[in-house]
Design goal:
Blueprint: H1 2-19, H2 23-33, E1 35-37, E2 58-60, E3 68-72, E4 78-81, E5 94-96, E6 101-104, E7 118-120, E8 125-128, E9 142-144, E10 149-150, E11 166-168, E12 190-192, E13 199-200, E14 214-216, E15 221-222, E16 238-240, E17 247-248, E18 262-264, E19 269-273, E20 286-288, E21 293-295, E22 310-312, E23 334-336, E24 358-360, E25 382-384, E26 391-392, E27 406-408, E28 413-416, H3 420-423, E29 430-432, E30 437-438, E31 454-456, E32 463-465, E33 478-480, E34 485-487, E35 502-504, E36 511-512, E37 526-528, E38 533-536, E39 550-552, E40 557-560, H4 566-569, E41 575-577, E42 582-586, E43 600-602, E44 607-611, E45 624-626, E46 631-634, E47 648-650, E48 655-656, H5 664-668, H6 707-731, H7 733-748
Parallel strand pairs: 3-5, 4-6, 5-7, 6-8, 7-9, 8-10, 9-11, 11-12, 12-14, 13-15, 14-16, 16-18, 17-19, 18-20, 19-21, 20-22, 22-23, 23-24, 24-25, 25-27, 26-28, 27-29, 28-30, 29-31, 31-33, 32-34, 33-35, 35-37, 36-38, 37-39, 38-40, 39-41, 40-42, 41-43, 42-44, 43-45, 44-46, 45-47, 46-48
Antiparallel strand pairs: 1-4, 2-3
Helix pairs in contact: 6-7
């Protein structure tokens, strides 16, 4: 009986022992306890199991006594922390926690997993430095922890990882220098340190990594020179060092990288000439040296890289001509030589490119004609030759394949008509021909460019009416036709342009009434109709353009009263120019509600009568007020004492009476601002000899200073500023070219890369 009891007790103990979860399972449960499992991916991780070998993400060996060799929890939406219990899985070879929301430290206990070969922690929220214990993982081949919040320097123990092939920790906040010990990682093929805060120089020991294939250290804070030893990395295929603070020459030894396919050195401080040895990169597909301080000529040796697809050397200080040898690069799809000091002609052979899609040469001093067959053999999408000295006609085939998205030929000396091939270019989104010598009319076919968002033909010699078909271009946001000889009426179809933000038709010969349909352009921010022959009254609907910031109507023949609606809804208006017209009646007090008005309020040279509204004293931001040459009467309101921002005004040649408001500005201004009014003789501080230039004919609409002050201050200040400016730009020619380029960019819009995906 007693023996039977003993047997049952032993059997019970054996069953109990066999049902207890093994140690690896317990370590994994501790790891589970540290994370939040929102979608219950780890639901089957239970303490009642004997082993974790059947759990989600867990893989075990097939031995008699299986052990955990792989843990894959990729993309399980896990959050929380990474438990130090991971150090108990000493048989682990593969660990993947990528694409989760795990935060906190990488536990130093990871160093106990000495068999670990693949470690993926990328795209989480890990912070703090990478632990030195990572150097204990002597079998590690791949370590990826990019896109986290890691800080601190790279551990010097990384040099112990003799088997390491891939090391990617980009897009963190890692600082410090690149440890020279990395040269001991002789198996390293990919080193990815991009988008961190790494400082110092690239260690010359990098040249000892003979198996290195990819070196990505872009967007850091590197300084110093590119070490010539990098030329010893003979297997390198991709070298990306852009957006750092590197300086000095591009080493000639870079030509030793026979297998290099991608070279990105842009946005640094590199100087000197481009080494001719760059022509030895026979397998290169992309070379980008832009935004540096490179000088000298473009090496003809580029022509030897027959497979080259992208060549970008823009925004440097290169001189000389564009080598004809570039015409032999038949695989070239993108060429950007903009913002340099290049001279001479565009190579004749460029018109025979077959793969070219993006060709930018703007901001140079190129002359001669544009090759007339350009676009005939290639599907061009971007062409930008702005700001050169190019002459002749626009190539007729430039949009032959209807892929053209951006065409910028402004600020040249082109003449002739706009070719028919462009008029039917439905793919075109940005079209700029400003500042040329183009003639002829704007044909009705312009309405076929239905995807156009940016259209400039200002400062040319175009004639005839603006075609009503322009209303078909419903994607237009910017429309600038100023400085031409357009005639007839502004077409009412302009009201179809619901996306329009800027409309400038100033300095033309347009006439007739302003169409009320313009009020349908609800997105309009800038409207310039000045210097034309528009007549009759303004449509009341103009006051419904609530987004309007600048309204210029000066120098026309508008008549009637100023609509009260202008002062009610235009809350964003900062400049209102209405001088030089035939407006009559009283100034509406509602203009005083334009609380954002700052640059100017110009109502001069009209037939306005009545008193100056008290409400104008509410324009606290206003800097310039021009009411001269009207028929205003009464006193200048005392509310003007609140106009503390006012720096210039003119009330001359009206019928104003009474004392002046107690404003210091009034007392310090020239008497020309008041002359031609009855109160002039009644104010002692105005009893000074009247300047000869002070007459009713001497004041012009939109004049911001009196002529006597202008003559003195302009000659002195302008001379000093101009000489200083010229001296600075003469000393630094790079600033000179960059200055004029950025002026043009700020006028036409400041980006290419985000608009219409044409960067």
């Amino acid at each position: 009986m007693g023996g039977r009891l003993v047997f049952l007790l032993v059997a019970t103990l054996l069953v109990s022992v066999s049902e207890e979860l093994n140690s690896e399972g317990r370590y994994l449960l501790e790891l589970k306890n540290g994370v939040q499992d929102e979608f219950n991916y780890l639901e089957n991780w239970k303490s009642t199991d004997e082993t974790p070998c059947g759990w989600t993400g867990v893989n075990c060996t097939s031995d008699y006594e299986p052990v955990v060799w792989s843990l894959d929890l990729d993309s399980m939406n896990l959050s929380g922390i990474f438990s130090p219990s991971i150090g108990g899985l000493i048989n682990l070879k593969h660990l993947d926690l990528s694409h989760n929301e795990i935060k906190g430290n990488i536990p130093k206990e990871i160093g106990n997993c000495s068999l670990l070969t693949f470690l993926y922690l990328n795209e989480n929220r890990f912070s703090s430095p990478i632990p030195e214990e990572i150097g204990n993982l002597s079998s590690l081949e791949e370590f990826e922890a990019y896109t986290n919040d890691l800080t601190g320097p790279l551990p010097r123990s990384i040099g112990n990882l003799q088997q390491l092939k891939i090391f990617r920790v980009g897009e963190n906040a890692i600082s410090g220098n690149i440890p020279a010990e990395i040269c001991r990682c002789q198996s390293l093929q990919l080193l990815g340190l991009a988008k961190n805060q790494i400082r110092g120089e690239i260690p010359k020991e990098i040249g000892m990594l003979g198996n290195l294939t990819y070196l990505w250290i872009w967007e850091n804070q590197l300084s110093g020179f590119i070490p010539k030893e990098i030329g010893n990395c003979s297997n390198l295929e991709s070298l990306a060092l852009y957006e750092n603070g590197l300086k000095g020459y591009i080493p000639a030894e870079i030509g030793n990288l026979k297998f290099l396919k991608e070279l990105y050195l842009y946005s640094n401080g590199l100087n000197g000439s481009i080494p001719r040895e760059i022509g030895n990169l026979s397998l290169a597909l992309v070379i980008d040296l832009s935004h540096n301080y490179l000088i000298g000529e473009i090496p003809t040796e580029f022509g030897k890289i027959k497979g080259l697809r992208v060549l970008q050397i823009f925004q440097n200080q290169l001189t000389g001509v564009i080598p004809n040898e570039l015409s032999s690069l038949s695989n070239l799809t993108k060429l950007d030589l903009s913002i340099n000091y290049l001279t001479g002609r565009i190579p004749y052979g460029f018109q025979y490119f077959t793969e070219m899609s993006n060709l930018r040469l703007f901001g140079n001093s190129l002359s001669g004609t544009i090759p007339q067959q350009l676009g005939r053999y290639s599907s061009l999408s971007v062409v930008d030759f702005t700001d050169n000295y190019l002459r002749g006609k626009i190539p007729p085939h430039i949009c032959r394949h209807f892929k053209l998205i951006l065409l910028n030929l402004g600020l040249n000396r082109l003449y002739g008509n706009i070719p028919p091939g462009i008029k039917n270019c439905k793919s075109l989104k940005r079209f700029n021909l400003n500042g040329n010598r183009l003639t002829g009319t704007l044909p009705s076919e312009v309405g076929n460019m239905v995807n156009l968002s940016f259209f400039r033909v200002d400062d040319n010699n175009l004639t005839g009416p603006i075609p009503p078909e322009i209303g078909n271009c419903t994607e237009l946001q910017t429309l600038q036709f100023s400085g031409n000889h357009f005639t007839s009426k502004l077409p009412k179809e302009i009201g179809k342009l619901s996306q329009l933000m800027l409309l400038n038709v100033s300095s033309n010969l347009l006439s007739g009434q302003l169409p009320s349909e313009i009020a349908k352009c609800k997105m309009l921010e800038r409207l310039d109709l000045s210097h034309n022959n528009f007549v009759d009254s303004l449509p009341n609907e103009l006051g419904t353009l609530s987004q309007l910031e600048i309204l210029k109507l000066s120098e026309n023949k508008f008549s009637g009263t100023i609509p009260e609606s202008l002062g009610i809804s235009l809350s964003h208006l900062i400049e209102l120019q209405m001088g030089g017209n035939e407006f009559s009646g009283e100034i509406p007090g509602e203009l005083g509600y334009l609380s954002s008005l700052q640059v100017a309020l110009n109502l001069s040279y009209n037939n306005l009568s009545g008193t100056i509204p008290l409400e104008l004293g509410k324009l606290a931001l206003l800097e310039v007020l021009l009411l001269n040459n009207n028929h205003l009467n009464g006193e200048i309101p005392t509310t003007f004492e609140s106009l503390l921002s006012l720096v210039e005004f003119n009330f001359s040649y009206n019928n104003l009476t009474g004392p002046l408001p107690a404003m210091k500005l009034f007392k310090n201004m020239t008497s020309c601002s008041f002359t031609g009014n009855p109160f002039y003789k009644g104010n002692p501080f105005l009893q000074v000899p009247l300047p000869k230039s002070c007459s009713s004919a001497g004041w012009k609409p939109e004049t911001l200073v009196d002529m006597e002050t202008f003559k003195v201050s302009f000659l002195v200040a302008y001379t000093i500023i101009l000489l200083s400016f010229v001296l600075v730009l003469y000393i630094n020619p790079y600033w000179r070219r960059a200055w004029f380029y950025y002026i043009e960019i700020s006028i036409t819009s400041c980006y290419y890369c985000v608009v219409d995906n044409v960067c």
